[in-house]
Amino acid sequence: MYIENMQGPEDVKKLTLEQLPVLAEEMRHALLIRASKHGGHFGPNFGMVEATIALHYVFDSPKDKIVYDVSHQSYPHKMLTGRKDAYLYEEKYDDVSGYSNPHESEHDFFTVGHTSTSVSLAAGLAKARDLKGEDGNVIAVIGDGSLSGGEALEGLDYAAELDSNFIIVVNDNDMSIAENHGGLYQNLKLLRETSGQAECNLFKAFGLDYIYVDKGNDTAALIDAFKQVKDSKKPVVVHINTLKGKGYAPAEQNKERWHFSGPFDIETGKPLYAGGEEGYEEITCKYLLDKMKKDPSVVAITSGTPGVMGFTKSKREEAGKQFVDVGIAEETAVALASGIAANGGKPFYGVYSTFVQRAFDQISQDLCINNNPATIVTFLGSVYGMNDVTHLGLQDIPMLGNIPNLVYLAPVTKEDYLAMLDWSMEQREHPVAIKLPGGKLISDGKTVTKDFGKLNKYEVTQEGSKVAVIGLGAFYGLGQAAADLLQEKTGTQATVINPYYITGVDTGLLEGLKKHHSVVVTLEDGILDGGFGEKIARFYGESDVKVLNFGLRKEFLDRYNPEDVMKENHLTAEQIAEDILAVLK
Amino acid sequence: MYIENMQGPEDVKKLTLEQLPVLAEEMRHALLIRASKHGGHFGPNFGMVEATIALHYVFDSPKDKIVYDVSHQSYPHKMLTGRKDAYLYEEKYDDVSGYSNPHESEHDFFTVGHTSTSVSLAAGLAKARDLKGEDGNVIAVIGDGSLSGGEALEGLDYAAELDSNFIIVVNDNDMSIAENHGGLYQNLKLLRETSGQAECNLFKAFGLDYIYVDKGNDTAALIDAFKQVKDSKKPVVVHINTLKGKGYAPAEQNKERWHFSGPFDIETGKPLYAGGEEGYEEITCKYLLDKMKKDPSVVAITSGTPGVMGFTKSKREEAGKQFVDVGIAEETAVALASGIAANGGKPFYGVYSTFVQRAFDQISQDLCINNNPATIVTFLGSVYGMNDVTHLGLQDIPMLGNIPNLVYLAPVTKEDYLAMLDWSMEQREHPVAIKLPGGKLISDGKTVTKDFGKLNKYEVTQEGSKVAVIGLGAFYGLGQAAADLLQEKTGTQATVINPYYITGVDTGLLEGLKKHHSVVVTLEDGILDGGFGEKIARFYGESDVKVLNFGLRKEFLDRYNPEDVMKENHLTAEQIAEDILAVLK
Q1: pTM score of the predicted model
Q2: Which end of chain B has less neighbouring CB within 10 Å, N or C?
Q3: Is the peptide bond prior to B62 cis by the omega test (within 30 degrees of 0)?
Q4: Residue A543, burial from CB neighbour count under 10 angstroms (0-12, 13-18, 19+)
Q5: DSSP assignment, residue B264?
Q6: Which keywords label this protein (chains A, B) (predicted)?
Q7: How many other CB atoms are there within 10 angstroms of residue B389's CB atom?
Q8: Which residues, other chains included, contact A403 with Cβ-Cβ below 8 Å and sequence gap of 6+?
């Protein structure tokens, strides 16, 4: 086996051109075994095996610097840069992260995980090289799906200004996570069909040199191409035509399903673990499809992640023109929603919490200044969400919670959520965002009659005294549990409050609490800085009421265990009850 | 005069083709008189007179909907849609805003002011039209300078998906605010030089139909073109070649100077009011040029607004390769800075407060997760900054203040700022942002010896008791004034503190205050929600110390008088002292 001897890129260069495809097969085999047991990004890595080998065969990493976009396709790179063991031996699978990581290797230059960043980041490496008068190649690798993102297109536009060595490898597998959307993909198709010969060429239109490699999974062809551009004195695009999921038939056939996979049976491709119970994805999709049938002006928008809101291929077909995928383009998703609302439509934009921050300015300017009635729903904004440092969902409360005019709501139950949607999708007064709770879905079957149009009205769910616990969204239950513990320990029943509104303070209710309460406690599923609890602390700042804010410290966590993080942040019911007791004393 | 009779677009249609150029001259004359007395965006409006006439001649606004990018070129549109008086009569000059405004007219669809949004917003109008089964044209107008922004490029990419009427008018005057930067401008040049015939065409590469109008200031040529595309069933780009500042010789000759102008003498073009004293623009430019000479790895970055940091054309030439304009592309500016820092360079990114929010995700992900030592400086983030609703600088504290790893600093004086730069540009540990104070520049000549590398250490500048006043940045002086008043009234000297750090709490110092202080007051130049003061309120939440947070309410202000806003927010020294007294009682 060659792969077992790969200590670094220098070992790739020792192989003959004939041996490289064998290395590729070995790597793919290891990737398959690991994926079947461990899960992870699948299709992107299977398509990039040969290109990665060719890059390390031709270039001299780390002097030559390779920057991967999203870096969910960097497993082969890690295998060839001293980290093969994490792909060969099960006990070492967790030694590496799922993304490029400078803490792991000098061959990685950035911790990344969001799309469309590689060209601009790599341009920075190249610019610094030029300022320092150094040489060496800088290579940005970017997938076709990532090209639709504003930062990537800005980067392509800026690249031509470099006027020095800069190589952009466009890994074109004709897929985003789902199918691509956007006019530029017609041009990529034209380029593939003409072997790169078409005169109308997106990359040339951005002022860049260009070469095309039809056989993007052929090491020899790729090596030829990379040798051509090595040490180029001008920015150049190498457009390679690859097959996503190459080498595993189920993944070649159903690319969307195999973009990312949990553990599975290699024979059949079937997941080892059955899907969970009904989640907010399915609930959302069902709600929207039903509403679309009754109202042609309802439209669901995604920015390249239709799965987040349950829109599988068949559901997308069912929705027809009432489902819009703008490609990976969060800014345009928000602006589009605002425009649709301005013209009387009823837009819904579903987005991962970690990605909603890609449209801060559009939410503030395009949407909220204009007060257009669009609905944004954030998914997995929770300590129980994704736990890679690049995919945290702990920032959306400070991010969305402080933008004027926006109404940001925190449902606790499925029933809350549906009632909020019923209100939000029909009202014409406010831009609305809804923060879906993380953790286990709660459905209590209760009918929600609350009028969400009466803004910032919190609800007392348990009358009590001395202590009031305000539990926001996913942490409402934790607040109730802490209140119960407190009652056990002191005999005093605390008041428990469901605030519903992240973006506003119920001054009447809070004022009223002063009479019989000496401590007000807040809980929120996100970082405390700039969050919900601090608004309550400010409200009571000049009063005698004590305020305790519970939530997460401001930090970038990485690959954490939620239970550990909860404990470290004093977020178990026991810890909360103890902290309250300490203040009561 | 025709212009005096223009009650709405229907009156434009009543003129003959021969009369339209006369109307254009009348409009330009009115614009010139108004600009010379009132100031405003100059070049963009002078270039768009004929195109605006032609749009209203051919299309039927408001059924046909025109969306302007930035909308700083919408003065001619306002003149033709019922708002001519605001351009003809000096006493009515302030009846209109400087940007499109749905509150003024049914012919305006969005309140906008940031760049690169028109295509995506207008796409939303078109999508809603299609969902509702209506007809009518939707027209997005966008300048060449705005095309470099990610949202615009995303919008061009998405547009082809519409598959229905959608017209994008690209107003190409071969200028951004300063000269254009980016590879796409080579393509625009090629298209201009070939009368739109070149096969390699950025817009076609995005899947769009395309026509070219060489005479972009000729009403007849424009009317021909617009008639061609009217009621088109497919998205189409109309690329028009216009002259920025057309009709006023000084503006045609020095386009950068005349992008925006204050009042001036029409004969000479000279400003009526002399420039102010030295500001942070000049101080920043001088500092950077000096540093660049000593260190070739220092690089200043702008995203299309070099003037914000004092880099006039001659200064840019002086800096050479050490000055980078990425075009209007804030996302790429931040990523580039991160990449430069990662490779050992010393990047400085200067940006208006109102625009820094266009790069939230890049600051969080590309920069702060990677902990790269770049320096970002925010300008005009202040109640004393720009006062159009689309250009407020009141959001940067909640926006930047809650991102992990970022060190956000608030200087009070010029000397503070320079000392912060000295530290920030040389350290290799942290991403740093500096919030320049608004209002009158303060220089006290004092040497600043503070080591900013010891994070979150506030400074007590006046020892006192009972009350501690923490005045952040521009509001430090206000805090001192309130403390002085308090002393006058009560005889008690308050402690006064300069916190310097927006992003962290000096727990040691705050803990120590508990001993001899019952009230802690915070002041900040921005909205309170998610801001600095709330962190202090949280810190003291469970203690007996009372906290009063002073700052601005969360709202979108528009064209306000700063003194009024200060009073309304209880931000005069008298009001603050009174509020403190009320709590002391």
Answers
A1: 0.98
A2: C
A3: yes
A4: middle
A5: B
A6: Isoprene biosynthesis, Magnesium, Metal-binding, Thiamine biosynthesis, Thiamine pyrophosphate, Transferase
A7: 21
A8: A363, A364, A368, A503, B395
Q: 564-583 in A: which are within 8 Å (CB) of B?
A: 583
Interchain contact, B547 vs A541, CB within 8 Å: yes
Name the percent of chain A lying above pLDDT 70.
Answer: 100
Which one of B332, B517, B585 makes the best mutation probe of the A interface by having the most chain A beta carbons within 10 Å?
B332
Q: Determine contact: A337 vs chain B, CB below 8 A.
A: yes
Give B262-307 pLDDT, tens digit per residue. Answer: 999 999 999 998 777 789 999 999 999 999 999 999 999 999 999 9
Query: Which A positions 288-327 lie with beta carbon below 8 A of chain B?
Result: 296-297, 299, 321-322, 324, 326-327
Give the CATH class of A280-435: alpha beta
Q: Does domain A3-247 match CATH 3.40.50.970?
A: yes
**A63 is written with which tokens?**
């002097």
Partner A contacted by B66 (CB < 8 A): no
Burial A355-375 (b: 16+ CB within 10 A, else e): bbbbbbbbbbbbbbbbbbbbb
Compute the distance between CA of residue B150 and CA of residue B70 in angstroms, rounded to an integer: 14
Candidates B176, B361, B375, B552, partner chain A, best to mutate (most A CBs within 10 A): B361
For B282-435, the fitting CATH number among 3.40.30.10, 3.40.50.970, 3.20.20.140, 3.30.70.1350 is: 3.40.50.970
Judge contact between B285 and B315, C-beta under 8 A: yes
Q: What is the 3-state secondary structure (H, E, C) of A149-205?
A: CHHHHHHHHHHCCCCCCEEEEEEECCCCCCCCCCCHHHHHHHHHHCCCCCCCCHHHH
* E strands, A279-431, in order: 298-302, 323-325, 346-352, 375-379, 407-409
Q: What percent of chain A has pLDDT over 90?
A: 98
- Give the strand pairing for B459-462 and B495-498: antiparallel
Is the ipTM here above 0.95?
yes
Q: State which residue of chain B sits closest to A505, comparing Cα positions.
A: B529
According to CATH, what is the number of the domain A459-584? 3.40.50.920
- Say if A431 is an interface residue toward chain B (CB within 8 Å): no
Q: Do B151 and A150 touch (CB under 8 A)?
A: yes
The answer to whether residues B155 and B225 touch, using CB atoms and an 8 Å cutoff, is no
pLDDT band at A422 (very low <50, low <70, confident <90, very high): very high
Q: Tell me the average pLDDT across B555-575.
A: 98
Can you give the pLDDT at residue A276? Answer: 73
Q: With an 8 Å Cβ cutoff, are B121 and A366 in contact?
A: yes
Residue B554 touches partner A, C-beta closer than 8 Å: yes
For A80, how many CA atoms within 13 A lie in the half-sphere containing its CB? 31
CA distance B244 to chain A (A): 23
CB contact under 8 A, A206 and B202: yes
Q: Do A528 and B537 touch (CB under 8 A)?
A: no
Whether residue A466 contacts residue A496, with contact meaning beta carbons closer than 8 Å, is answered with no
**Per-residue pLDDT averaged across A61-81, rounded?**
98
B412, pLDDT greater than 80: yes
- State the average pLDDT for chain B: 97
Q: Which residue in chain A is spatially nearest to B554 when comparing CA positions?
A: A404
With H, G, I as helix, E, B as strand and everything else as coil, classify residue A141: strand
A-chain residues within 8 Å CB-CB of B130?
Answer: 321
Domain residue extents for chain B = 3-248, 282-435, 459-584
Cβ–Cβ < 8 Å for B328, B148: yes
Instruction: Please indicate whether, in this complex, the C-beta atoms of A151 and B548 are within 8 angstroms of each other.
Output: no
**Quick check: do A280-435 and A459-584 share a fold?**
yes
Q: How far is CA A532 from CA A99, A378, A549, in A?
A: 31, 16, 9
Residue B299, min C-alpha distance to chain A (Å): 8
Indicate the class that CATH gives domain B3-248.
alpha beta
CA dist B253 → B43, B130, B267 (Å)? 11, 44, 15
